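for ur thesis appendix - Two-component system, sensor histidine kinase YesM. copy paste whatever u need, i formatted it the way the template wanted (i think)
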Amino acid sequence: MSSQWLSLLRLRSFRHRLMVAAIVCLLLPALITLAVYNMLTKDAMKQEAVTQSQQKLELVDGYVSNLFNYMFYIANNVQLDSEMNRIMKAIASGKTYEGASAEYDRYLDRMKIMNKIENMTVVGDKAYVTILLKDGTNFANYSIDEYNPGLFREEPWFAQLSGLSGLQSFWPGATPTVFDSDKVRSPYQLSIARALRGDSVNPYGYVIVTILENKVSDIFRKIELEQETMLLSSEDQILSHPDAKRVGEIFPYATLASDQADPHILQIEKEDYLMAWHTNSLTGWKLVSLTPYDRAVFKLNVIFKRVFMFQLVSFCLFMVLLLYLLGKFTRPLVRLGRVAETVQRGNLEVRSGIRGEDEIGYLGQSFDLMLDKVKETIGEITKTQVRKRKAELAMLQAQINPHFLFNVLNSIRMKVLRKGDSESAEMISSLSKLLRMTISQDKGVIPLHEEVDLAIDYVRLMNMRQKEKAELTLDLSPLSLTALVPRFCLQPIIENALIHGLSQQAGLMMISASEAEGGYQITVSDSGQGIEKGKLERLRHKLGAGSLEKLEQGAVGEEEGDAGALPGKFSGIGLVNVYERMGITYGERFQMTIDSDIGQGTVITLYIPKQVVDSDG
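the 3d part is after this line
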């Protein structure tokens, strides 16, 4: 009997082991989660209540900020309107109206200012605009029967306006409403004031924009009833409150909140309140809200309890469903295992045929694709070898009988040198070097300095055969000189630069090389005519295709391109051949970029990784 139980515990079936493991791995975390859940619920509810309260306050701040921005906008318009400032400066400076139309001119100036004030306040909440000039002239969009604008000069804060500069504003805070018709519905008002300055330092006038405090408190009343919202000054004085009687009081709990461990939870008369605050960026005033904590978390507490019960029931149902699904989902694994054994015996033609949208279906499809990829890889390797042979064939086609040609050229050079024609002798010497490197078969790669010497000889030969000479400059770091590169990787680029970029005329070319991260960076640039944007994009696309056949097809019809970028030819070797050979030699780490602008020349950059390369090419 005991042996039977032990055999059951061993669970030799993978399917049964998976089911037991799933139950254990789900049951233990679930029990731990349920235990920790109760511990974390309280903190989570508090944090969520604080977040919601803060979000509501930020929403309120958006509405309040719109009011303050509206006042700020009116003050800006008055201060920056050129026509208003011109008229008001003239009046403040003692402008006299003379002639038969003096009174009419005075009336027109006043109406221009009044119309602009009316246009500023026609859209938006009701705002009172007052302009006081230093000569005693007043402009306002309200009747003098409501309030005499000149009485603003007697306000205790008015003296501070002279110290304001530029667009600096002064917010006096909540002050008793001065407009008779509005005192009943809004005992207090909020204002913004600025000094108006001309060319002198002293102000020529002042602008005051006023709204009623109940515009702000009405926003507070729209919030949920259990939340008490107020606006405080930087000195914690209440500036706006749903209960107008509290305006002007000092908020007594700001200091108490900062002294507590959790400033968001405030205890008032043995009851916890949730406190949130947000500072208005325009005025520096603070929005503060107080919410009874029990009310704030009541809805969240109900939600958490429902979620807890839902999780418990869902867990039980899920366990039953999991056992059923595990048995169903693991059936394809058995078939996949059999196919793997067949492949292991060497049969690459077998396929699992397992398909589906789940992981097992994806695994079966991937396994079949992997087998297909093996066959494709074998074919790709064969194609790569063919491509490499094509590139080598392009090099072989440039060869001629070496020994006979070198001996003849050497004899010609010596005979020319004896006759004193050193320039022709130098030309023959450079040609001999080029031909020797072209037909050499014992070197697939050479040091960079030899490749650069080859480019120098080529430029020297080209300069001798064309009317205008091109100049080649070098900027090579010492360490890069010994870098091994495939032979004839620079000469075709130089050839294209001379023929297509410089159009066989005078110009500048430069070869620079330096160490880059994990390799070397070689740059060939010219001062030629550059490449049109459309041709440049097509060339980049063709180089990115990574196929010699595609690149060569793309080169057809474009040999008359620009600036060393379109594939020119030297003994059948062009930029296409260079790109392909470098890609075969260095693999995907090799990079070639082409940059060109019309009239600015072309820059071709090669990145060659540091690695041991095959000397046979």
